[in-house]
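To close the section, here is one more complete example, presented without commentary so you can practise reading it yourself. The ligand is S-adenosylmethionine.
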Amino acid sequence: RPRGWRSSKDVAKILRGGTSLRISRNHELGSRSPAEVSGSRRAPAVRQVIARNVSTVSSDVDVSNHSSEDLESLISRLGISREALVVKPDRVQHGIGLIAKRDLRKGEELLNVPKKNWITIETVRNSPIGKAVEGQRPWGSQLLGSTLAFREYVQNEFERIRSEVLAPNMAIFDPSVFTFEAFSWAFGILRSRTFAPLTGEDLALVPLADFVNHGTIENDGKPSWELRRGSGLFGSQDALILKAPRDFKAGQEVVMDYGAEKGNGQLALEYGFVELPEMDAAAFLQSRSRDNFSLTLEIPEGDRFTDDKLDVAEINGFGASVSFDIAPGQGPPEDMLTYLRLMVLDGPDAFLLEALFRASVWGHISLPVSRENEEAVCTAMLDGCRAAVDGYSTTIDEDVRMLGAGIDDPRLQMAVVARLGEKRVLRELQGWFEAHLARLDQLEYYAERRLRDLGLIDDKGYMTPWVFKE
Ligand SMILES: C[S@@+](CC[C@H](N)C(=O)[O-])C[C@H]1O[C@@H](n2cnc3c(N)ncnc32)[C@H](O)[C@@H]1O
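Output:
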């Protein structure tokens, strides 16, 4: 359910984000890319946050019509020697995956797919549809904020493409083939099969490499793929290299972590699955590493300091609204606390918004400003957390029971796993701010810090006696 958060002071508007589900006030995501929207300074304030609906976009790959001959012919068309490959694409539980042909050591090179085999923007430009799509921006690099914004964006993009590209070129784009359904499918496929750094202008689909499925890997968090730049000499060209993120035994499926930082909501949105470790239900309920909540904070409008606050936020690289990803076990990110302090800055503390402090205020408010300010931060967050938790149609316990009993519908299962993760993070965040509220008396605030900086107070908090030198 859409739900706005208001603090008791009516200054903090904390919009419930879930998997960062949000649309702009005027529903004007329109033809602007979500990246432009979320990245723009003073973007239209985010007014509405739409309920999580992780199942509306699926990027499931339809592999029903892939035969092993198809895979063989793909490899030979790529001009890759089958014998030289240490992994081979084959059917696995989640569509197609890469199977180790022999024992593989961590760090070993698995695939080297040279650029000539990628499907890049250049490939499209040089194809028969190149002329028709000239000037179109690539998709895939934008981190789309929400499933509904995602769908709205895809719909708007399709409408734009239909009028700019499809309708004027019906001879190339048969309307019975280039439908909205086909476009949505292609969009989902592109999103789920393209990885940094091959995004944005460098967007590329890399055959074979895009068969690798996701699995959790305990490693240093480094991606298992890298771009190797060719020198251009003697035909040496860029290649995408896939490396084994750990050891694999012959016959095992090689998997890679699509992003240790990605929560289940993001995995669902981008790839159409959530992580359900193959362990018993109790262990799964204990494991919280893919829990995630994306919280959108907004500088309140109509506050007498709105303009100054926006200015401060902007100077420090933030907009009128900012989303913070909250992961379990880490408490609120520091920048989030700073932004919150700025949002609720009021009363005698507002002197920090004077032009004189413009360059230094962010540093000052990165630490507690005053008891009143810190309390307002806590109250706003606690109100917001409670409202958000109350806004779900089920409780944490109910979700846990549902999962324990087993859910047959994979989409429902995905939605329940994602929403349970969100609620657990919210509950933890609530606990953090409750504890913070209880320790307000022990914090050091701006005024004391200033005195210390001026040498007027010592480390134990005593006023330094005047020392007269002879
Ligand atoms: C880069 S492709 C991987 C190859 C894909 N399995 C295929 O058949 O072509 C990413 C897609 O594979 C599927 N996938 C990858 N890892 C998965 C996992 N751990 N659980 C469920 N589906 C997964 C999802 O549909 C995802 O969008």
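Once you have examined the tokens, check your reading against these statements. The chain has 14 helices and twelve strands. The mean pLDDT is 78.
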